[in-house]
Amino acid sequence: MDPIAHTFTGAALAASGLRRTTPLATATLLIGANAPDVDVISAFGALFESLAFRRGWTHGVLALAVLPFVVAALVLLWDRYVRRREYPAATPARAGPILGLAALAVLTHPTLDWLNNYGLRWLMPFDGRWFYGDAVFIIDPWIWLGFGAVAFLTFSHRRHSLIGGSVFWLLASALILTTPGVPVAARVLWLVGVATVLVIRGVRLATDERSLERGARIVIGCLVVYIGAMVLADFAERSLVRTELAARGVADIEQVMVAPVPGNPFAGQVVAATISSYYIGEWHWWPKPTLEIAPEPIARRTFDPIYIAAAQTIEAQRFLTWARFPYIDVESDANGHVVSFLDARYVGTQRLLTPVVRLDRDLRPR
Prior knowledge:
By secondary structure, the protein is α+β, with helices and mostly antiparallel strands. Among the domains are: 1-132, no CATH class; 235-298; 300-359, no CATH class. The protein contains eleven helices and eight strands. The protein has helices spanning 3-15, 25-34, 49-53, 61-86, 95-114, 141-155, 159-178, 184-203, 209-247, 305-310, 314-322, and strands spanning 255-261, 264-273, 277-284, 290-293, 298-299, 326-333, 336-343, 356-359. The strands form two sheets. Strands 1, 2, 3, 4 and 5 form a five-stranded antiparallel beta sheet that branches. The chain has a three-stranded antiparallel beta sheet with strand order 6-7-8. The two termini are 38 Å apart.
């Protein structure tokens, strides 16, 4: 998920009552909820190194065991050498609750990241396999709305927090309203939700601490149910897509993805892989279960000598470490071939930065 969703998740957990467990509880939850994304530093490395490294080491089982201790140690050091030196009378943070909160917050991060079709490697560094939830879009407006509302109502008592929260709702609304493919009903529901949050904040309804905590727990429960429903729906979607494709004569399907789309839980982007092709389409639950498939599949070409030769380059290897449905686009002339590596997950959208390999007529890099 995006950093905003992770941050709101930590804030919602704090607002549910966990912030009262120990001093610096909220800070621990916010830091822990974002800690696995320390691997973003790989973006400053070599070309495509970030694709090969991200959502691996810092998101896997070893990180889940180590990062809570790192987060807790940093928070406790800050408490001892900064906070309590500045405020000697302040109550010390408690090590046990800080570690427990850090573990909870860190665990939320890969769990949320797993939900989308970008995926992550749960078993790193012991196993590099990718796992995909295919349940929730990488930027989910309902997670923003639910957890964001909890965070805004709980932590917007100071003027700068109120202004910052209001700016977020404005910018987020602009994004939801201008993103192609978001249904009109979803846009209306978003605006109604945002207006409701602002009205509650403006007239100061239910602002006592206990009421806010109860509201936060209700919202967290509702979003857990929503996410669970989306996960279960994905299992059903993949089964129905397989059955429908088989009825249309598509045989030997190796893998099916029905990926979430922006703001619409009743639709999904379909990629079905056979040994030679990718079948691209859309799935719709509403008004009735329907599968739409593009007339021409995409050739995988993974056994093509051009693909094999181009895949030996370091840039292509990094890309292929991450790619789920890789294929190539080839332009040939008298001098050789220009090979672009692509991923069928992103057909129909703006292409990610992808490796381009130039081969001569003897299939050697040039």
